[in-house]
Amino acid sequence: MKTAFITGITGQDGSYLAELLLQKNYKVYGLKRRTSTPNFENIQHLKDDIEFISGDLTDASSLVTAIRHSKPDEVYNLAAQSFVGESWSQPILTGEITALGVTNLLEAVRREKPDVHFYQASSSEMFGKVIETPQKETTPFYPRSPYGAAKVYGHWITVNYRESYDMFACSGILFNHESPRRGIEFVTRKITDGVAKIKLGLEKELRLGNLEAKRDWGFAGDYVEAMWLMLQQEHPEDFVIATGETHTVKEFVDIAFKHVGLDWKEFVVQDPKFMRPAEVDLLLGDPSKAKKRLGWKQKVDFEQLVKMMVESDLEKYIRERKG
After folding, report:
1. Mean pLDDT for back-to-back runs of 10 residues, the chain (323 residues)
2. Could you list the active site residues?
3. What is the DSSP letter of 199?
4. Which strand ranges, in their side-by-side order, compose the sheet holding 74-77?
5. CB contact at 8 A, 224 and 215
6. Which SS3 state, helix, strand or coil, does residue 53 take?
7. Can you tell me the distance from the alpha carbon of 191 to that of 310, in angstroms, rounded to the nearest whole number?
8. Are 236 and 162 in contact (CB under 8 A)?
9. I need a surface site. Which of 31, 147, 154, 164 has the fewest CB within 10 A?
10. Residues facing residue 135 across a β-bridge
11. Cβ–Cβ under 8 Å, residues 206 and 268
12. Short-list 245, 267, 254, CA closest to 306
């Protein structure tokens, strides 16, 4: 039986990855930060199958203990201060967790179990002000937020450990991937949650920022499979994981409202408050290397994804209403 250790296990990606690995009969360990109100919403249905270890990416000694205890075959570093908007108001914290936290974990692995297959969650936000379109593994980085800059550090330190210590360490440069488990602060979930509330008469409007921003959106459940596939290869390599299609926020909004029989123009208000100091206008990934080398492909398309998220939020509020 293989053993995996996942940081960020209670997040969207961590929960889908834990599900996938449990289906593959892995023993799964998850890093759990001490918080006054632990949030297990995404993994409630898996909680009894996962062994949690207390620790924090900013506390190197806790990571050494965690690796020593779990003796993993695979380590997936999915934990981060992962909200781009928040990284502007908390740039130092973002750097400590999203950048230096990666070094702490790599160092713990190097000391305790150097034969581990290590996965680092890199991000399309590293491309930022894009130098070329579509973006692929060789596209230069030009981050446009403290989050993007921190992710670039995490990415390059992973490359450095791979090359300096001959470790099996690789990064998945994942483009936007969403699901019903996405945090409410992300624009996609904010939209589908808002649509559900408006449809059920709980809200009258939805306030959004830049409707013209373009993103390459896929389904998180598909993307965690790519993470797993990367660690099953003979040699560690970095891969862009994306759909290869781009859609505007406006398109997302349009499909979501249409799904419940409403016209978005009657409910959406553009609010300057939600504009970023430095906007990333167009992110579009080229997943051809992942398709060729890993045999990976997306199963859920853009429209299916939007509708799945709207349905999930509708069901949630209908359940709550019934009590």
Report:
1. 97 97 98 78 94 96 98 97 83 95 98 98 94 96 95 98 98 97 93 98 95 94 98 98 96 98 96 71 92 98 98 96 84
2. 123, 125, 147
3. H
4. 50-54, 27-32, 3-7, 74-77, 117-123, 168-174, 239-241
5. no
6. strand
7. 8
8. yes
9. 164
10. 285
11. yes
12. 254
Token pair for 166: 């001959």
d(CA 18, CA 49): 9
Please count the residues of the chain.
323
Cα separation, 282 vs 4, in Å, equals 35
Structure tokens at 264: 């978005």
User: pTM to 2 decimals?
Assistant: 0.94
B/e letters for 279-296, b = 16+ CB within 10 Å, e = fewer, are: ebebbbbbbebbbeebeb
DSSP-assigned letters across all residues of 133-164: SSB-TTSPP---SHHHHHHHHHHHHHHHHHHH
How far is it between the farthest Cα atoms of the chain? Answer: 58
| Residue spans of alpha helices (H) in 43-174 | 60-70, 84-89, 91-94, 101-112, 146-165
Tokens at residue 15, please? 């929960």
* 283 and 216 Cβ atoms separated by less than 8 Å: yes
Please give the structure tokens belonging to residue 93.
């914290």
Q: Is the peptide bond before 277 cis (omega within 30 degrees of 0)?
A: no
